[in-house]
Design a protein that fits this description.
The complex is a heterotrimer of chains A (330), B (519) and C (376).
Chain A lengths: L1 H32 L7 H22 L5 H29 L4 H26 L9 H8 L9 H8 L4 H18 L1 H11 L1 H6 L4 H27 L9 H15 L4 H16 L9 H7 L2 H16 L20
Chain B lengths: L4 E12 L3 E12 L3 E5 L6 H8 L7 E6 L7 E3 L4 H6 L2 E4 L11 H6 L10 H15 L14 H14 L4 E5 L7 H16 L3 E6 L2 H7 L2 E6 L2 E7 L5 H9 L16 E12 L5 E12 L2 E5 L6 H8 L10 E4 L8 E2 L5 H6 L4 E4 L3 H5 L6 H9 L10 H13 L16 H14 L4 E5 L7 H16 L3 E5 L3 H7 L2 E6 L2 E7 L5 H9 L3 H6 L1
Chain C lengths: L12 E5 L5 H27 L3 H13 L11 H25 L7 H18 L5 H30 L3 H22 L30 H20 L1 H11 L1 H6 L4 H28 L10 H11 L4 H24 L6 H21 E5 L2 H5 L1
Antiparallel strand pairs in C: 1-2
Helix pairs in contact in C: 1-2, 1-13, 2-3, 2-12, 3-7, 3-8, 3-10, 3-11, 3-12, 4-5, 4-6, 4-10, 4-11, 5-6, 5-10, 7-8, 7-10, 8-10, 11-12, 12-13
The chains are: A mainly alpha (330), B alpha/beta (519), C mainly alpha (376).
Chain lengths: 330, 519, 376
């Protein structure tokens, strides 16, 4: 029974951890499918996290009896919109002004982490010190578990003992998988990322698609930041750079999932498992823990290398990934 | 206004950058239910003009009128391909606009904003209906990267028809097709014409123009020359309109003298990345002091042949390429050596590749640095810069290269000047074997003659010249012998002085009997 | 005809590539973008702390180059720190230059710096009894080797199987970070602090020696040597020429008999080695310790520096200086007006966005719908 509990705890923490990067990865898949390689994912996750926190902080502070529903709406809107604004900035620079995507993405990460940690620090200052900020009502909303089901023995705990954003992440991943394969818009989007000249000739507005895919993608990634502050860290803030690391892990997950949202679901949980496994492996000390934490990255490298060996056309990155499109190029 | 006109282009001008005028004041009518040939040499602005109808480019000035509702011409503005489709214009580009990892159905469905959900079955049925109506064959679930060139082209036409195109533009559709496939395409075009569609075919092949079209419009150097009814046209009248003056190729061809074996190729076989034999058991000898022409439909193995000799192409076992140096008695084997090893063996090989800026030159560097490409290894650690600089100046003066300076990036030069830089460098290396691929493609007549002169000069110096060409008249007038490749196989070597265009044309398109038995 | 012209719908603005632009004009555009960015930052800071933006800019300059007092000397401690950090950033950017010139997106500098730093720290810890010259040779050799090895893997896979190098080098960063955490835990001092602490604080073994009594002059000498060397290497050497050819077109390189795979691997080894050496400069010449913050995002910032400088190593000096100046200036504002240090990343981000955007106006021209045509 003890072993059972340990295993359950491991799986639970893997799923919680995986949810953060699943949001980021699915958002980035949508962006990359349209041909934009946005290395600003850590930055937009930061933007999503801090905006939701700031939004509800002021709401909870100024209202005597904060309404949980309003809290949730404010948090989600703030997270999504702030991250999407980051995506809009990225799109404007890379699509309209044709700046290099890698460089712009990295700048967005620097900017996002600066903004988030700056305001996070200010907020902590308002509340009287590091780690003092609390947004109880909101974080309670996001951490609410499904009654009855979550207590139904091991299965119930494994499947139903999480805040509802965990299921939102899965739904978004499944929906985007369906979107890519079963809808015209999804088809057009993939064409934009594979061969923008062709998409253009077919009458698809390449610029519009790239803008929308990037903004919606970053918005979804921003929800990863939301989940992190509201549920994972229970409505607190620390300037510790965790979100940045998670953001890069999300970028890794995109490769691991070979650009398919459905793979990102189990991939995210697998990354979570690899991340937490060290706690449950006997005989590890702090030093070897750190080596153990390399695993997700090493596994991603292996997947990357493996897909480039196999050369299977369907498993390659979108053909126009990272390239600006300019119709009158000659 | 006349209501049998579908589209009217008026005073269309398009420039690229400050120097390149692609189209100047072009006025052109396209009638309903006709096949119109748009004829012109390479670089005469045919494709650019049509791209403006298809919404790829926007004209700098001029007007486009269309009869969209049968009530006469109205001015239209085509800002994007979407606008073009809305007006019923569909263009099949030379480089197909297909997504490789999509199926035929997915490619057809692309970009249509009907309902969100898309019904693959329905689209597949519609494709089949179009195919049956005009006589196409398309496999709905086949991925594009598994398709042959002809299948891709068919898919492109179906795609345009599915979108309700009434005006179809085909950009050099036959360049990549076999004669049988061309015949099938022409049948389909006639079916579409019978159905009331207007078809514009961009081409520079006169026999096709005469065979398929109702009228011919001719462009020369970006300007409109005129339109004639095909019934009134002959090969020579069209040629005259196309090139401006009657050109009988006056290439001063000397009898080869004192010829010596220079390259002996035996059983050369290459396999391309898809596992198909691009070259199949080719054997021939190239002699110093003669020009060996190589003819064939594009993609018949010409590229692989030259690259194999240059050490840039892997070959299959038993292949042999022997080089006999002027002073040496024993041949040296080139197979299995890299380009650098071949160079270090002292083989004086020059190569003017087809892709000038993508392979022969570095576009971002100036003439001077490009000269260095052959000689940069000379220095110790650092590159030797004086030699290339004076060479660049010499090439610039001798071949009259038009460039602001020898440090201006060569990609900013015009096609003819780029080619002069490349040929100048390769000849300056004093080769014993000189290989050229499509050396005059896209060049004006004067530059072309400069190049022919240079090649003949090399031949008289005793160089073995290998000339891969596409224009049969040039091949006949320039070469001493012509080797014809067909589908990767050597289909015959003929004497250029006695053979006829028909004979070569036949060798290009029909494998000889005994070869057929094996395949 | 007049009535149909109403339907005409020409796009309002079209964009075309510029053939060329006078140098002064392109410099002017870039300077303008920085000025504009500073104005925006000024407005933001004003909204936050309600202080006269000019006052803020003055604080920034003071933060980077010391407070303007009566006996102001330009080469004060602050200026030296600014110089030190500029050199660090420059060193990494110079290391990235050959890879970028080859169109190889080495975004793994962060990791290469860290492994170079680990190698340096290892030498300082385990070989501190060697004679100083020998110790320095070991440190330099070890950091070069470590950085080179770290870049070798992505390079080999890129050369042989065309594996995406952007993603590969990115992942290698995080492997390196975990590796650093491992060594930090291994060398923890004092126990339980979760840091390595200053290495060799008493004997200063393996520390950059002061030159003419100046602590950081050595950093300048080392990095400027590399910078000038790299400029000459890229511009005048045979290998540098090969890098340019491969970067422009791999086919042309093959045609010229250049072994593309060899050039890719060799160039990445050089790139990684210099990034590794930056780790040596960071540990031995600046912090004298190792932690996951030894690289501290400079590997990423340097990518932006190398890109904006168009691979010209001398332009990199200016851009590095600009970014370090912003960083120091912002930190000064933060401490003076009771904000936190992250304001620096925010300001850097904004300025970089403006500079990135300004490149568009250097490379492209916009053609507006002309009025004459409508009159016609």
């Amino acid at each position: 029974m003890g072993n059972m509990n340990t295993l359950l705890q491991l799986l639970q923490s893997s799923i919680a951890f995986g949810t953060i990067i699943m949001f980021g990865a699915v958002g980035e898949i949508i962006t990359e499918k349209a041909g934009n390689l946005n290395l600003g994912i850590p930055g937009v996750m930061y933007l999503g996290a801090i905006s939701s926190l700031v939004g509800v902080f002021f709401y909870e502070k100024n209202v005597a009896d904060p309404n949980p529903f309003v809290c949730a709406v404010i948090a989600i809107l703030c997270a999504f919109l702030a991250a999407a604004l980051g995506g809009l900035l990225f799109s404007f620079l890379t699509i309209t002004l044709r700046a290099n995507q890698n460089v712009t993405g990295l700048t967005l990460t620097i900017f996002g982490s600066g903004v988030a940690n700056f305001f996070g620090g200010l907020l902590n200052g308002f509340s009287g010190g590091v780690g003092q900020i609390r947004v109880e009502t909101t974080s309670k909303v996001f951490m609410a578990k499904i009654p009855f089901l979550s207590e139904l023995g091991v299965v119930g705990k494994l499947l139903f003992s999480y805040g509802w954003l965990v299921y939102v992440a899965i739904i978004i991943a499944v929906l985007s998988q369906w979107f890519f394969n079963k809808t015209r818009t999804g088809l057009n989007l993939r064409a934009v990322g594979e061969n923008p000249a062709t998409a253009d000739a077919a009458g698809i507005n390449v610029t519009l698609y790239r803008y929308l895919a990037t903004c919606i993608g970053t918005g979804i990634a921003g929800l990863g930041g939301l989940y992190y502050v509201m549920d994972y860290t229970k409505g607190t803030w620390a300037n510790d750079g965790t979100i940045e690391n998670l953001g890069w892990l999300a970028v890794a997950l995109v490769i691991f999932a070979i650009w398919r949202p459905k793979n990102a679901i189990w991939g995210a949980y697998l990354f979570g498992l690899l991340f937490w496994l060290y706690l449950y492996v006997p005989g590890l000390d702090r030093k070897t823990n750190e080596l153990f934490n390399m695993l997700p990255y090493v596994v991603t490298i292996i997947v990357l290398v493996f897909t480039s060996f196999r050369k299977k056309r369907e498993n390659q990155p979108p053909n126009a990934l990272g390239l600006a499109y300019f119709r009158e190029e000659r | 206004m006349q209501n049998n006109i579908a589209v009217k282009l008026q005073d269309i001008t398009k420039t690229f950058g400050k120097q390149v005028v692609a189209n100047k004041d072009v006025t052109l009518d396209i009638r309903k239910g006709e096949i119109l040939s748009l004829l012109g040499e390479n670089g005469s602005g045919k494709t650019t003009l049509m791209n403006m109808l298809a919404g790829i480019y926007f004209p700098d000035s001029g007007h486009i009128f269309m009869d969209t509702d049968g009530e006469g011409l109205k001015e239209v503005s085509i800002c994007s391909p979407k606008d073009a489709y809305a007006l019923g214009i569909g263009m099949i580009h030379q480089h197909f606009k297909l997504v490789d990892v999509f199926t035929a159905t997915e490619n057809v469905a692309l970009g249509l904003d009907k309902s969100i959900a898309f019904n693959k079955k329905q689209i597949a049925q519609d494709i089949k209906a179009i195919c049956d109506k005009y006589g196409f064959k398309v496999e709905a679930d086949k991925k594009v990267y598994n398709m042959s060139v002809s299948e891709k082209q068919t898919l492109e036409i179906v795609k345009a028809l599915y979108r309700g195109a009434n005006i179809l533009i085909l950009d050099e559709p036959t360049a990549v097709l076999t004669p049988q496939e061309t015949d099938m395409l022409f049948d389909v075009m006639r079916n579409m014409k019978a159905d009331g569609k207007s078809i514009i075919i961009i081409t520079h092949k006169l026999n096709e123009v005469l065979e398929i079209s109702d009228r011919v419009s001719i462009l020369r150097k970006g300007e409109y020359v005129g339109t004639v009814d095909t019934a009134d046209a002959t090969v020579s009248s069209l040629t005259e309109m196309m090139v401006g003056q009657k050109v009988t190729l006056e290439i001063d061809r000397k009898e080869p003298k004192d010829i010596k074996e220079r390259l002996v190729v035996k059983n050369l076989t290459c396999v391309n990345k898809y596992g198909v034999k691009a070259l199949d058991n080719v054997s021939f000898t190239a002699y110093g002091g003669e020009i060996l022409g190589i003819a064939g439909i594009s993609g018949s193995g010409q590229k692989e042949l030259l690259e194999a000799i240059a050490g840039l192409q892997d070959t299959v076992e038993n292949s042999s390429i022997e080089y006999i140096a002027p002073e040496a008695n024993t041949p040296s084997q080139l197979i299995g050596k890299t380009a650098l090893q071949i160079k270090n063996m002292g083989v004086a090989l020059s190569f003017v590749p087809e892709d000038r800026l993508g392979m022969g030159l570095v576009g971002t560097m100036g003439m001077s640095d490009n000269m260095m490409l052959r000689s940069y290894r000379k220095g110790f650690i650092f590159t030797e810069r004086k030699g290339p600089k004076s060479l660049a100046q010499k090439v610039k003066d001798d071949l009259e290269v038009v460039t602001p300076s020898i440090t201006t990036p060569v990609r900013k030069l015009s096609g003819g000047n780029v080619q002069k830089v490349l040929v100048g460098r390769e000849i300056a290396a004093e080769p014993t074997v000189l290989m050229t691929a499509y050396a005059v493609r896209g060049l004006d007549v004067n530059t072309s003659y400069t190049i022919y002169g240079l090649l003949n000069e090399q031949k008289e110096k005793g160089v073995a010249v290998i000339y891969v060409g596409e224009d049969l008249d040039v091949l006949l007038a320039l070469s001493d012998r012509i080797m014809v490749l067909c589908d990767g196989k050597l289909n015959g070597i003929v004497d250029a002085r006695t053979t006829t265009k028909e004979e070569i044309g036949l060798l290009m398109t029909h494998l000889r009997e005994e070869e057929n038995d094996n395949g | 005809m007049a009535n149909v012209a109403v339907h005409k719908r020409e796009p309002l603005v079209r964009i075309a590539k510029r053939d060329s632009m006078p140098l002064w004009q392109s410099i002017l555009i870039r300077v303008l973008s920085i000025v504009l960015a500073l104005v925006v930052c000024g407005v933001i800071i004003y909204m936050l702390i309600k202080v006269n933006p000019l006052e803020v800019y003055k604080s920034m300059v003071e933060g980077a180059f010391g407070a303007f007092k009566e006996d102001y000397k330009f080469f004060n401690r602050r200026t030296w720190i600014t110089i030190r950090d500029t050199m660090m950033l420059l060193c990494i950017a110079v290391g990235l230059a050959p890879a970028f010139k080859m169109r190889f997106w080495n975004i793994g500098a962060e990791g290469q710096i860290l492994v170079g730093g680990i190698a340096t720290a290892a030498c300082m810890i385990y070989l501190k009894n060697l004679p100083p010259v020998l110790l320095f040779i070991c440190m330099i050799g070890a950091s070069l080797l470590a950085g080179a090895l770290w870049s070798l893997l992505p390079a080999i896979f890129k050369a042989k199987w065309n594996t995406n190098e952007t993603l590969f080098t990115l992942m290698m960063n995080y492997v390196a970070i975990q590796l650093t955490s491992f060594f930090v835990a291994l060398w923890e001092n004092p126990f339980g602090s979760n840091t390595v602490g200053i290495i060799n604080p008493t004997g200063k073994e393996g520390w950059f020696p002061p030159v003419f009594g100046l602590d950081y002059l050595m950093n300048v000498i080392v990095v400027m040597t590399i910078t000038v060397g790299m400029f000459i290497y890229l511009k005048y050497s045979k290998q540098g020429y090969e890098i340019s050819v491969v970067g422009d077109s791999e086919n042309t390189a093959r045609y010229a008999g250049i072994n593309v795979k060899k050039v890719i691997i060799r160039t990445m080894l050089i790139s990684g080695a210099i990034c590794g050496l930056s780790g040596f400069v960071a540990v031995s010449g600046a912090s004298h310790t190792i932690s996951v913050n030894t690289a501290g995002g400079k590997g990423f910032t340097a990518i932006i520096v190398a890109w904006l400088a168009k691979f010209n190593t001398f332009t990199m000096i200016l851009i590095s200086l600009l970014l370090v100046f912003l960083d120091k200036g912002a930190i000064e504002i933060a401490s003076k007006y009771d904000l936190n240090d992250y304001v620096a990343s925010m300001i850097t981000g904004i300025i970089l966005f403006f500079i990135l955007g300004s490149e568009f106006f250097v490379n492209y021209r916009m053609i507006f719908r002309s009025k004459e045509k409508e009159v016609q």
